């Protein structure tokens, strides 16, 4: 079972990113955590950082849905267009405050989404994300 030590947080709420970072650090000592308030910058980071075939690291992405400019659904549409070699290195979890069943169902239908998680991020979620994969 593979353990992840790299995490990407994309959420326009600075407090949510801070809470998520603290939670990840509790479960994954020495983890590399990169957080973005701007989803465009987060997307570019993934493209730049994970397109190099000489690097073999993978990451867990906690992605918010409701953000200005590019929401989580737009992000996932762009993500789907990336080369499979990049997509295969990123394990996507939706991390949202929305409990709307339509959002949950839509996320479950997306082949790139591992799970839909309600904020705040918990140590249990980090543990499960770090050691399991349900990707279809």
Concise overview:
This protein is 42% helix and 21% strand.
Chain-wise SSE layout:
Elements: E1 6-10, H1 14-27, E2 32-36, H2 39-50, E3 59-63, H3 72-80, H4 84-87, E4 90-96, H5 101-109, E5 113-118, H6 123-131
For the largest beta-sheet, the strand count, sense and barrel status come to:
5 strands, parallel
| CATH T-level fold name | Rossmann fold
Distance between the termini: 17 Å
* Spatial shape: globular
Name given to the CATH homologous superfamily: Response regulator
The share of residues in extended strands comes to: 15-25%
Q: Regions with pLDDT < 50 over 5+ consecutive residues?
A: none
CATH architecture: 3-Layer(aba) Sandwich
Q: Structural class given helices, strands, pairing?
A: alpha/beta
How many domain units? 1
DSSP helix fraction: 40-55%
Strand line-up across the major sheet: 2-1-3-4-5
Oligomer: single chain
Order of helices and strands: EHEHEHHEHEH
Write up what this structure looks like.
The chain has 136 residues and is an alpha/beta fold. It has one domain (6-131): Response regulator (Rossmann fold). 42% of the residues lie in helices and 21% in strands. It contains six helices and five strands, in the order βαβαβααβαβα. It has helices spanning 14-27, 39-50, 72-80, 84-87, 101-109, 123-131; strands at residues 6-10, 32-36, 59-63, 90-96, 113-118. The chain has a five-stranded parallel sheet, sandwiched between helices. The longest helix is centred in the N-terminal third of the chain and has 14 residues, at 14-27. The chain is globular. The model has no long low-confidence stretch (mean pLDDT 92).
């Amino acid at each position: 079972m593979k353990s992840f030590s790299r995490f990407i947080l994309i959420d326009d709420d600075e407090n949510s990113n801070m809470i998520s970072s603290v939670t990840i650090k509790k479960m994954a000592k020495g983890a590399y955590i990169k957080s973005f308030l701007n989803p465009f910058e987060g997307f570019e980071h993934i493209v730049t950082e994970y397109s190099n075939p000489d690097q073999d690291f993978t990451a867990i992405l906690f992605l918010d849905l409701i953000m200005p400019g590019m929401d989580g659904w737009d992000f996932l549409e762009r993500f789907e267009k990336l080369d499979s070699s990049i997509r295969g290195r990123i394990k996507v979890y939706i991390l949202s405050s929305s409990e709307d069943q339509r959002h949950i169902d839509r996320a479950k239908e997306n082949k790139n989404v591992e799970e839909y998680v309600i904020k705040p991020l918990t140590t249990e979620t980090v543990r499960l994300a770090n050691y399991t994969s349900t990707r279809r």
